Amino acid sequence: MSARLLIVLMNTDPRHVEELGAPFYHAAVAAAMDYKVDVVCTAAAGKLMMKGVAEAIQIKPGHPKTVYDWIKEAHDHGAKLWACPANLELYDMSEDDLIPECSGMMGAAAMMQDIMDGECRVLTY
Q1: Is residue 77 part of a domain?
Q2: At 26, is the secondary structure helix, strand, or coil?
Q3: Predicted structure pTM score
C-alpha cells in the first residue's frame, strides 16, 4: 500500500472558483492522516502559487475563507505544494513571486517519474 499521494492540478482553473476547494481539502485530510502529500499546480492552476492570487479568491461568496486559507490549511497539515517551472515563464514570474507555502518547483520529468515508479497514488483535478 502506498503512503504517498500526488495531487495534480492541471485542469483546475482559478476562474472557476467552485473547482478550487476540493483539491486542497483532500490534501489537508490526507496529510492529517499522516500520508505524504505533494500538490503540483500547473497550467492555469499554476497561478494559485503566485502571491496574491489565491488570497483574492473566495470559493463561496460572502464567506471569509479564501483559496489561500485552504492552501495554508493543507500546508499546515504537512502537504507540500509545488509550482511548475514552465509556469514561471508562462506567467512572467520568478521564484520570488511564489507564496511562502510553495516548496519550490516540480517539473514534468520529476512528476512523471513519481507516477511511473508506482510509489504513489495520483488524484488529478
Answers
A1: yes
A2: helix
A3: 0.94
**Amino acid identity for residue 34 in this structure:** D
> How do strand 80-83 and strand 102-105 relate by DSSP bridges?
parallel
Measured between alpha carbons, how far is 54 from 40 in angstroms, rounded to an integer? 15
Residues of the domain holding 71: 4-8+19-33+40-124
**Digit-coded pLDDT (tens) for 4-26:** 999 999 999 999 999 999 999 99
Element spanning 88, H or E: helix 85-90
CATH of residue 68:
3.40.1260.10
pLDDT digits 0-9 by tens, 70-95: 999 999 999 999 999 999 999 999 99
With helix as H, strand as E and coil as C, how does 37-54 read? EEEEECHHHHHHHECCCH
From residue 20, how far is each of 11, 16, 79, 113 by CA, in Å? Answer: 11, 7, 16, 26
φ, ψ (nearest 5 deg) of residue 122: -125, 130
Residue 14 belongs to a domain:
no
For the chain, how many structural domains are there in total? 1
- In a domain? residue 44: yes
